[in-house]
Design goal:
With 162 residues, chain A is of the alpha+beta class. Helices cover 34% and strands 13% of the residues of chain A. Chain B is α+β, with helices and mostly antiparallel strands.
Chain lengths: 162, 279
C-alpha cells in the first residue's frame, strides 16, 4: 500500500475508506482526523498515557502506536462503538455515578481499559485492577473514584448475573 | 513511502531483498514514537503483523529448549506456560511499559531496536540465546553476544529479518530486576538478569553499557570459590554485587548518572543472588 492509495479500516463493524492519507499515519490520527471518530484522545503520542486506547482484534492497545495502514484486515473497536443508540454501558454509567470523571480527557481510554479488564476477568482483585489501569494516566482524580467506578461496575454485573 | 504487509517469512524476506532500506515493523511501540515525533521518516515499511508463523512459540523437551517467534508479544510471555519454562523472561516482560504496550510490543521488536535498556535483552544474554535471522538467501543463527554489537546496533543485515530466538528451558532459579523512577511504564535506569543454568550462575546487565554486559568475571569468581551456592554467606553476595558493579560501564545521561547506575547494579546483583539461594 503506497501513498495516495486508498485503503479501508473496519471500525466498530463499519468499513471506512481512508483517502489521501500518508500511509505512515498512526491509527489515532486516522480515527480522529480522517474518520471523524474523536473518542480516542491524543495526548502523549508515545504510548505513555493510554488516552488513545482502542481494541485491535480484541487487544487493548495504544492507537497512537499502531500504523493505521497495517491494520486493514483487523477489527478495530473504539469507545464510540461500545454501545449504540445513545445508551451507556455499565462501565460508563458507573463512571458517572461514582464521579470518576473530572476533565474527562482520560475517560474514554479508561473506559476501554476497564471494559477490556472485565471482559477477561469478571472478579479482578484490587491489585489486578490497578495493574490493568496502570497504562492510563489521569491527572485530575487521583484514581480513587475511578477504582470505585470499577468496583461498582463489578458488583452491578454480579447482581445482574444472579 | 509504501507499506508492505507480507503473510509469510518468505514473502517478507523477498520484500527486504527488493527494498533493503525498508523499515521492519513489529508491534510498533518503538518505531511509531519516532514517526509521530518526526524523528524518522521511513522510505518503505515491511510490517510483520500478518506473518502468523512469527507469532508462535514451542517447547522442545528433547533438546530442553524453547523457541519463541519474533512476533510473540510480551503479554504472552508474562504468564501461563511460557512463564513456567522461562521465568526470567516472564519477569522482564511484566516490567515492560503498560498492559497496552505489552499487548503490542514483541520480542522481535525488542531485538530489532536493541536498546541497552531493552527489558528482554539481559535475559537473552544470561541464557545465551540464539537469535534466528532469515533472508531470501537462507537462515542463520547468531549467539546474542554476537548479535548486539552496540547501542541500537546489531549484526543483522538490511535484507535480514529476525524470526525468533531459542533459549534453554529453565533448570535452575532465574530472576530479573530493574530500577526506574516508578513502577509502571518505566524505561530501566539499570537492570539485571540472574539465571542458574546447568548449575552455573550467569549474570547479565542492562542500561549500564553500550551493549548488554555479561559479568564473566563475577560469574568466574563465584564458580571458582564456591562449590555450592548454599555455602554463600551474605558477605559473599555483597562481594558478588561489588564485582558485578565493577564490570558495568555506565554513563551519565538524561535518565540517571553513572555513579547511581553502578550502585544500583551492586544492589540488584546482590539481591538476585540472595533470592536464588533462598528459593
Amino acid at each position: 500500500m503506497s501513498n495516495n492509495e486508498f485503503y479501508s479500516l473496519t471500525v466498530n463493524g463499519v468499513q471506512h475508506p481512508v483517502q489521501d492519507a500518508w500511509v505512515g499515519e498512526s491509527l489515532l490520527y486516522v480515527l480522529r482526523e480522517r474518520l471523524g471518530l474523536p473518542g480516542a484522545k491524543g495526548a502523549c503520542e508515545q504510548g505513555e498515557c493510554g488516552s488513545c486506547t482502542v481494541f485491535v482484534n480484541g487487544s487493548a492497545v495504544c492507537s497512537c502506536l499502531v500504523m493505521a495502514a497495517t491494520v486493514v484486515d483487523t477489527e478495530i473497536a473504539t469507545v464510540e462503538g461500545l454501545s449504540s443508540d445513545g445508551t451507556l454501558t455499565d462501565v460508563q454509567q458507573a463512571f458517572i455515578d461514582e464521579g470518576a470523571v473530572q476533565c474527562g480527557f482520560c475517560t474514554p481510554g479508561l473506559v476501554m481499559a476497564v471494559h477490556h479488564l472485565l471482559d477477561q476477568n469478571a472478579q479482578p482483585s484490587e491489585h489486578e485492577i490497578k495493574e490493568a489501569l496502570s497504562g492510563n494516566i489521569c491527572r485530575c482524580t487521583g484514581y480513587g473514584r475511578i477504582f470505585e467506578a470499577v468496583n461498582t461496575a463489578i458488583s452491578r454485573r454480579q447482581e445482574n448475573a444472579r | 513511502m509504501t507499506v508492505y504487509l507480507p503473510h509469510t517469512i518468505e514473502e517478507a524476506t523477498a520484500l527486504l531483498e527488493a527494498h533493503p532500506h525498508a523499515l521492519v515493523l513489529g508491534g510498533g511501540t518503538d518505531v511509531m514514537v519516532e514517526i509521530n515525533f518526526n524523528h524518522r521518516k521511513p522510505s518503505d515499511v515491511v510490517a510483520l503483523r500478518n506473518v502468523d508463523e512469527l507469532r508462535t512459540w514451542t517447547i522442545n523437551n528433547e533438546t530442553s529448549s524453547i523457541y519463541i517467534g519474533a512476533g510473540v508479544p510480551y503479554s504472552e510471555m508474562e504468564s501461563g506456560e511460557l512463564q513456567k519454562v522461562a521465568p526470567a523472561l516472564a519477569a522482564a516482560a511484566r516490567t515492560v511499559g503498560s498492559p497496552q504496550i505489552r499487548a503490542a510490543g514483541t520480542l522481535g521488536g525488542n531485538l530489532g531496536t536493541c536498546s541497552p535498556a531493552g527489558d528482554s535483552l539481559p535475559v537473552l544474554s544470561a541464557l545465551n540465546a540464539e537469535v534466528h535471522l532469515a533472508s531470501s538467501h537462507g537462515v542463520r543463527s547468531v549467539p546474542f553476544a554476537e548479535y548486539m554489537v552496540g547501542p541500537k546496533r546489531t549484526s543483522r543485515t538490511a535484507t535480514e529479518m529476525i524470526t525468533g530466538v531459542t533459549i534453554p528451558k529453565a533448570n535452575g532459579w532465574q530472576g530479573y530486576s530493574k530500577v526506574g523512577v516508578r513502577n509502571a511504564m518505566v524505561i530501566s535506569v539499570a537492570s539485571a538478569c540472574l539465571a542458574i543454568q546447568d548449575d552455573m550462575v550467569r549474570l547479565a546487565l542492562g542500561s549500564v553499557g553500550p551493549t548488554i554486559i555479561r559479568c564473566v568475571e563475577a560469574e568466574k569468581w563465584l564458580h571458582e570459590n564456591f562449590a555450592t551456592l548454599t555455602d554463600l554467606q551474605p558477605a559473599d553476595c555483597a562481594e558478588f554485587g561489588r564485582r558485578a558493579a565493577s564490570e558495568a560501564r555506565p554513563i551519565d545521561d538524561h535518565r540517571s548518572t553513572a555513579e547511581y547506575r553502578r550502585h544500583a547494579i551492586s544492589v540488584l546483583a546482590q539481591r538476585l543472588l540472595q533470592r536464588s539461594i533462598q528459593s
